[in-house]
Each structure stands twice: as structure tokens, then as C-alpha cells.
Design brief:
Order of helices and strands of chain B: EEEEEHEEEEEEEEEEEE
Shape of chain B: globular
Strand content of chain B: 35-45%
Shape of chain A: globular
Number of helices of chain A: 2
Helix content of chain B: under 10%
Oligomer: heterodimer
Helix content of chain A: under 10%
Largest sheet of chain A: 8 strands, antiparallel
Largest interface: A-B, 19 and 23 residues
Number of helices of chain B: 1
Structural class of chain B: mainly beta
Number of strands of chain A: 10
Structural class of chain A: mainly beta
Number of strands of chain B: 17
Radius of gyration of chain A: 22 Å
Distance between the termini of chain A: 45 Å
Largest sheet of chain B: 7 strands, antiparallel
Strand content of chain A: 35-45%
Radius of gyration of chain B: 19 Å
């Protein structure tokens, strides 16, 4: 019999309100657990602790796509439990690194078959706290973007003759600095469409 | 908020009708030929539905006050399968007495041994048992094999269901007397059903939780 149970593990590395690194682990199982999972950055096993019991509500399908476009992945976490409320409202998780691991259980033992594998590495983009009304249901939606987003960001601190003229008209200090969109050719030679590596 | 103890709530209900069902929380992948494969996505937990016999209004309202003291679905209470509070081999629990068994070697989450049962204690198939772990989390499950404790009270590795949570450890306290799980009321499920003038019966449904 193949693996017949799955657990999802979400690990978020952000900052506390003092600006110091802080991290939170939540998972779909009951109770708290500390186990080795595969790191999304090094690919080797790391020991991490996860808080369960209804913290991680929903993990959407992770869709693979071609190209540099990034699609948001919306993780849903509890708006009621202290563990997730503290993470969202009592810390700074804007841009925090998110790693999703999925563990498989062997039905013969119901133990995790191996270190949970990485399914997704990304960053928290936006947070939407949907507090339920009386009789309603709520959730906190962590909208995350894959790490690919790092290839798409522009540098807002660019300096150029144009930006200097906007602020200090007539200042020629950056006369020969030109700000322009520079196409990044990943693995291709510019203009030829041919692969660089032969 | 601490869970309502057995004596404070569950023992006071004289259940007339009881459902105590394990829900597996599984997903399916279904092929065109109709063959489906299933995998669990959440911990299997019990769901209980209890209907009390008709009782005088004052008694029913008293039980309802206890229900309301749970603050809707916020609080938890301990509940066991009212149809079988004791092993069928020991219908009053007197043989078990004040024994304090503990979980022994946990081979896997579906196979666990025990120590500290009364010597030669007979555990029929389907006997409920409870493990308190991680301070105040409650596991309730059933023996999926008929076992008998040996001359020193040890029970060899037995199949159990549902699977144990990962943080149950050897040495955690076990009992087979009124083995309970922690339950939380389904929102709005607790009602007084007025069967006739002066009499009412309490109906509620609840879901198990492993919370502390």
C-alpha cells in the first residue's frame, strides 16, 4: 500500500517587532511536533518545530509554470488561535521567507515515511485577516509569491541623470549615467536567442 | 479553560441514543474506471451525537446550564462512548480497580504495548482506552486485537485505532475505565427537545479535539 496520509508543514522566517529574526512553524496535524524537514534553501535536513491543532487550515494546489511570471499561493491559517495571530499581528512577516514541506505517512505504521519534502519556497506578499462575523467563518490568508519574485523586482534606488534633473535641475553630476530597462537574458546570449552554454 | 470533567458533565447525562463515530478526513483520487484511492488529510477524530431520555424540565434545564457554561463551542468537555464505559470483560470496572497502567513500547503509531494492568486482565477486541499525553491532551482509541495482560500486568504490542498522535510517549497514563476524549460542541447543536408537557430531552453533537 502506498502512502495514505499527508501532512503539510509551513515554516515562516520573518522578524519580530524589534527587527530581530524570528520564525514560526505550523502544520496540519494535532499537537506540537519537532522533526527534521528538508530545507528549502540548502536541500539538507533541518530540525524545526511546528505548532498544530488547527493552525494551518488550507494549503492550495501548488502549480508549476513556465517563465518568470509568479502566481500567488494563498495559505489559510487560523484567525482564532494565538499561535497564528501572534505571527501575523504581533510580528513582521512582510516579505518573510515561507517554506512548505509535505510529509507522507506509511499506513502500516502511521509514522512519517521520510523527512518531509519541499513543495514551495517563497515570500509572504500580502496578509488578509478575514475575521468572521457572528455565526460566520474566518481565516487569515497569507498570499505568498515564489522565490522567483526576486528575479522580477526592479531597483527603486537607481540613480540617473534623469532622476538628478528631477530633483536638482541643472546639476550635471550624473550626466553620463543612463537609467534604462536592461533585459536579463537567462542562459541566452543577448540578441541571438541562442543558448550560451555549448 | 480547563475541560469539564466527567463527573461535572458527561456522567450526568443518561444517554438514550449515542453515536460515537470515527471520522477519517480523507481525500480521494477517482479514476475513470471508478477505482478510487484515498488518503488522510487530517487526524482521524471521533464525532459524538447524544440524545438523552426525556427528563423533567428542571433537570433538563440544569444540564443545559452546564452546556451553556461551555460558552458555545469555545469550551471543551470530556466524553466517552456511553454505550461501553468499561471493557465488556469487566462491566463495572471493579477488576481494573485503581490500577495505573502506562503506555509501554510504542513500536509505531498503530502498535503499542502497555504495562501496569491488573495481572491476567482480559482486554476484548474493541475495548476503549484513553492516554493522557503532553500534560493534558487526551487520546481515545480502541484495541484492534484481543489481548490479555500477562502475570505481571504487561500487555504485548497491540494494534490500536485510530493511529496515535506523534507526541504520545512511553510512560503516559492509560485507563480503560470511562476512556474519554476531549470534545467541543458543534455550534448551535445543543437543544432541548420538548417531548411532552413537563418533559424534555437534551440533544447535542460534538467533535473530538486533541488540544491541551
Amino acid at each position: 500500500m502506498s502512502d495514505r496520509a499527508f501532512d503539510d508543514f509551513l515554516f515562516i522566517e520573518g522578524l519580530d517587532l524589534d527587527g530581530d529574526p524570528d520564525s514560526w512553524g505550523i502544520w496540519t496535524g494535532p499537537g506540537d511536533i519537532t522533526l527534521n524537514v528538508i530545507s528549502g534553501t540548502t536541500g539538507s535536513a533541518v530540525s524545526r518545530s511546528f505548532v498544530g491543532g488547527g493552525t494551518l487550515l488550507k494549503v492550495p494546489p501548488i502549480i508549476d509554470g513556465i517563465g518568470l511570471a509568479t502566481k500567488p499561493i494563498n495559505f489559510e491559517v487560523s484567525q482564532v488561535l494565538t499561535a497564528t495571530r501572534d505571527m501575523v499581528f504581533g510580528a513582521n512577516i512582510r516579505g518573510a521567507r515561507v517554506t512548505l514541506n509535505r510529509g507522507r505517512r506509511d499506513p502500516a505504521t502511521w509514522l512519517l515515511a521520510a523527512n518531509p519534502e519541499v513543495l514551495f519556497v517563497g515570500r509572504v506578499d500580502t496578509v488578509d485577516g478575514q475575521i468572521g462575523e457572528a455565526g460566520g467563518e474566518g481565516r487569515i490568508v497569507l498570499s505568498c509569491r515564489p522565490d522567483l519574485i526576486d528575479l522580477n523586482i526592479s531597483n527603486p534606488a537607481m540613480k540617473s541623470d534623469e532622476s538628478t534633473q528631477e530633483r536638482f535641475g541643472g546639476d550635471r553630476f550624473r550626466r553620463y549615467d543612463v537609467a534604462q530597462i536592461i533585459a536579463r537574458k537567462w542562459g541566452k546570449q543577448s540578441g541571438t536567442g541562442k543558448s550560451k552554454a555549448k | 479553560m480547563a475541560a469539564l470533567a466527567l463527573a461535572a458533565f458527561a456522567d450526568l447525562i443518561r444517554a438514550a441514543q449515542v453515536d460515537f463515530t470515527l471520522e477519517w478526513n480523507q481525500q480521494a483520487s477517482r479514476a475513470a474506471d471508478g477505482e478510487a484511492h484515498h488518503a488522510s488529510r487530517g487526524a482521524p477524530l471521533f464525532r459524538a451525537k447524544i440524545t438523552s431520555p426525556a427528563m423533567p424540565i428542571a433537570e433538563a434545564l440544569g444540564l443545559m446550564a452546564l452546556v451553556n457554561s461551555l460558552q458555545g463551542s469555545a469550551g471543551t468537555f470530556l466524553l466517552y462512548d456511553k454505550r461501553m464505559p468499561y471493557p465488556s470483560s469487566d462491566p463495572t470496572g471493579s477488576t481494573f480497580g485503581a490500577a495505573t497502567p502506562v503506555a509501554g513500547t510504542i513500536t509505531s503509531n498503530v502498535s503499542v504495548a502497555f504495562t501496569g494492568f491488573p495481572n491476567g486482565y482480559v482486554i476484548p477486541l474493541g475495548t476503549y482506552f484513553q492516554i493522557i499525553y503532553d500534560t493534558s491532551r487526551y487520546y481515545v482509541g480502541q484495541f484492534a486485537a484481543a489481548k490479555t495482560a500477562d502475570g505481571s500486568g504487561a500487555v504485548s504490542a497491540s494494534a490500536v485505532t485510530p493511529p496515535l498522535p506523534d507526541d504520545v510517549d512511553p510512560g503516559d497514563a492509560v485507563t480503560v475505565l470511562k476512556p474519554s476524549g476531549k470534545f467541543r460542541l458543534d455550534p448551535g447543536s445543543a437543544i432541548l427537545d420538548h417531548v411532552q408537557i413537563g418533559l424534555a430531552s437534551l440533544v447535542f453533537s460534538a467533535r473530538q479535539t486533541y488540544e491541551q
